[in-house]
Amino acid sequence: MNFSRILIPIGVIVFVAAAWHEYKWPGVAVATGAVVMWILLHFTRMVTVLSRAANRPVGHVDSAVMLNVKLKKGVNLMHVIAMTKSLGVRLSEENAQPEIFKWTDPGDSFVVCTFKAGKLQGWEMTRPLQEEAEESVASL
Q1: What is the value of pTM for the model shown?
Q2: Whole domain around residue 22: which residue ranges?
Q3: Is 78 in contact with 51 (CB distance < 8 Å)?
């Protein structure tokens, strides 16, 4: 269960109530202003990430190897979109859990990420087969 959906609104209510208790209406005004600022900061970050992603091809990443190294379990989809600067190609059905997205680099290596409830559960990187064959020939 995602407790942040419950705890954040309760925290906001407690914050505004404490401001009322200490400073009455001026406290409520300041507390409400702080909450609105916090919401606007998150909204601005989301718009910035999505506008950067809108200027790139869907499912493209500069280096699948670097993306594979930077990924950490539990990060949200917005964080991964910010790292790749691109929306992923959806491999799962619309509104299905888990969500599966794919990012491919110019060398045809790709990373497939699995998200459940918006959080990264796992990922797998795949390199093209011809690259492995060229490496084995080069080592001879």
Answers
A1: 0.79
A2: 1-55
A3: no
